[in-house]
Write a structure and sequence with these properties.
Layout: E1 5-10, H1 17-29, E2 33-36, H2 48-57, E3 61-66, H3 74-84, E4 89-93, H4 108-124, H5 135-154, H6 157-160, H7 170-182, H8 195-206, E5 213-218, H9 224-236, E6 241-247, H10 257-271, H11 284-296, E7 304-310, E8 333-340, H12 349-355, E9 363-367, H13 373-381, H14 394-404, H15 408-419, H16 422-425, H17 430-433, H18 439-445
Parallel strand pairs: 1-2, 1-3, 3-4, 5-8, 5-9, 6-7, 7-8
């Protein structure tokens, strides 16, 4: 069982109370985190600074929120203490356009100190350097970053717990799939600009009156898998929620019915503390029957169950249809599925018809759009130094947006290409990219 992680939230007080409250609520929703900040210090004999530094020492993670005030300098001292310990540090800057005059230091000296410190932080941190625009935006970023850190620290076992009991290495295939869409600490996969889509999934999940099924469809390369992998990491951080995620992938050989339904059954069985058949001869119909039975049973601890099946279009020896899951599912179950458009499809509603989910009270459909220019910048910022520096260069972003047409697959291809030529990143100019044609053809012709 994972331990509770104490998160020290550092900021000036008067100007950032809404942001601190949003982060506090986000941490309360996560399984493994607990807020440690000035809200809980109480009355003590020590000075405010002494108390803060002692609490930094007792914490596991540092979250710094930088607004328009330098204040007394305690926030900087807390950061320095966290660096000395050292703690994992996540830094978030408030968008300057959203900072009112009343939330800025009136003293010129403090303004200069804040400007200098902001530059120092930007040089030292690749993650969290793009400005947040609202308390909710900040909370979403903190949740995603901490969820990623927790999963990096404690491993991908939370996704495949139970799958290892099967007689074949299906767990390894799923872990490899996750690695493809998350990358590593040294080479993270670009991801960004999906705040609207993540919020749509969260809103659906949090709405008790929403339909139990969520269908996401888009053309190939649009970023469905990347989005769902990132979203499931946030779901894993929720309280009173259990997640079962199974990718249906040709590349990672999880698209056969014997793999998909065996992995589903194994995950469900682990949640119910059951044993499952562990012989290679277990039939697909047996696995499918177990899946249906488990879906109808409430979880022993009363948690809500979220099931995510990614890539229905890649199913090899089976066809996703009305018999995929119970119609309707029990009240404690929510299901997300994704698929590419097929020839002749207009939008996600075509997949609803194939699944027999046309009733509006049964399912909702969602069409995934391309990234905006701002989304391309966010994706670059997520890649770590030195590529993250390109996310602040307007001309480079404009050219990469033109070349990729907002397609996440193309963004990744260009990022992977730039990683192999890191020595060129610092000298890259917009005119270097203008000679290339947009789209996949332009990329491969180049």
């Amino acid at each position: 069982m994972q331990p509770i992680v104490k998160v020290f939230v550092s900021s000036t007080w008067l100007d950032l109370q809404p942001e601190r409250l949003a982060v506090e609520k986000a941490l309360q929703r996560m399984h493994q985190t607990k807020l440690n900040g000035m809200e809980y210090f109480g009355s003590r004999d020590e000075t405010t600074c002494e108390v803060s530094l002692k609490e930094v020492d007792r914490s596991d993670v540092y979250v710094g929120i930088i607004g328009g005030r330098y204040g007394s300098g305690i926030t900087k001292e807390e950061y320095q203490r966290a660096s000395e310990k050292p703690l994992p540090r996540f830094i978030y800057f408030k968008d300057k356009k959203t900072i009112q005059a009343v939330s800025r230091d009136p003293e010129k000296e403090k303004q200069e100190k804040l400007a200098t410190w902001r530059e120092e932080l930007r040089k030292d941190h690749a993650l969290g350097t793009s400005p947040f625009t609202s308390p909710d935006d900040l909370a979403a970023r903190v949740t995603a970053d901490l969820s990623n850190w927790l999963l990096d620290r404690y491993g991908a076992q939370v996704y495949v717990d139970g799958v290892g009991s099967l007689p074949f290495d299906y767990a390894g295939r799923i872990e490899n799939f996750l690695g493809e869409y998350l990358g590593t600490a040294k080479a993270p996969v670009p991801f960004g600009g999906r705040e609207k889509d993540l919020k749509a999934l969260d809103t659906w999940l949090d709405d008790p009156t929403a339909p139990p099924y969520f269908m996401m469809a888009a053309p190939a390369g649009r970023g469905k898998s990347a989005l769902l992998v990132r979203w499931t990491r946030q779901v894993l951080a929720r309280t009173n929620t259990a997640l079962v995620f199974v990718p249906i992938s040709i590349r990672f050989r999880t698209n056969l019915s014997g793999v998909t339904f065996a992995a589903l059954a194994a995950r469900f069985a682990r949640l119910h503390a059951d044993k499952i058949p562990d012989t290679p001869s277990t039939s697909v119909e047996t696995w499918r029957g177990l899946v249906t039975d488990y879906l109808r049973r409430p979880l022993p601890n009363g948690e809500r169950l979220v099931v995510v099946l990614d890539g229905l279009d890649e199913a090899a020896d089976w066809e996703a249809g009305p018999d995929l899951f119970p119609l309707p599912p029990p009240d404690h179950v929510r299901v997300v599925v994704s698929a590419r458009y097929r020839a002749g499809d207009e939008d996600a509603r075509d997949w609803l018809r194939r699944l027999g989910w046309e009733r509006p009270d049964l399912a909702t459909s969602y069409n995934l759009d391309t990234l905006t220019k701002e989304g391309v910048a966010r994706a670059l910022e997520s890649t770590g130094l030195p590529l993250a520096q390109l996310g602040t260069q307007v001309g480079i972003i404009a050219e990469l947006y033109r070349l990729s047409e907002g397609d996440p697959l193309l963004i990744r291809l260009y990022v992977d290409d730039l990683r192999t030529r890191r020595e060129l990143v610092g000298s890259l100019k917009p005119e270097d990219l203008r000679k290339f044609q947009p789209g996949l053809k332009g990329y491969f012709d180049r």
